[in-house]
């Protein structure tokens, strides 16, 4: 998995990787590959699942740390973008596969985005209750937030580093607008 992820990180797309190549990069015989995975599709699914678990763990840590006075929105957005930038190959794969009509990985990529949205929605409800703030349409707010952040993050990968900060700030403002709108809808 690490060998395939490293190749994705170098800019290669998953569909250009062969089983023999991945086995060679991992330092194992091609026949040994089958001890771990049924085929390349199985490897790709495992990569998406592992990346998803990493993202969820990071987001949970950020939420725990925001009790120290840091803005949960800013901390979440910056952490997500750091993860996207640090795992560019996997991030591209997940977004591209979630948009591809013919991909075997599309259901797994979509499942990850749904899981991220559901997790965020649960947090938003919990946080609103803790703060005593009414919240309208938390699932819709979470879905919108995840969609904006993932598409922005992927777009930022192709941007010069010096232009990223402006777009990150815009993403933070968009998420704040969604949250304020959700809170306003909760009062209706």
Give a verbal description of the structure.
The protein is mainly alpha-helical and 188 residues long. It has one domain: Tetracycline Repressor, domain 2, CATH 1.10.357. The chain is 77% helix and 0% strand. The chain is built from nine helices and no strands. The longest helix is centred in the N-terminal third of the chain and has 26 residues. The model has no long low-confidence stretch (mean pLDDT 90).
Summarize, please.
The chain has 188 residues and is mostly helical. Helix content is 77%, strand content 0%.
Structural class: mainly alpha
Percent in strands: under 5%
* Oligomeric form: single chain
- Examine the coordinates and then state which fold CATH places here, giving the name of the CATH topology: Tetracycline Repressor, domain 2
Q: How would you describe the shape? A: elongated
Largest sheet: none
The succession of helices and strands, N to C, reads HHHHHHHHH
Number of domains: 1
For the termini, the CA-CA separation is 49 Å
Any idea what the radius of gyration is? 18 Å
Number of helices: 9
Mean pLDDT: 90
CATH first level:
Mainly Alpha
User: Which architecture does the CATH hierarchy give at level 2?
Assistant: Orthogonal Bundle
Count the strands? Answer: 0
CATH homologous superfamily placement = Tetracycline Repressor, domain 2
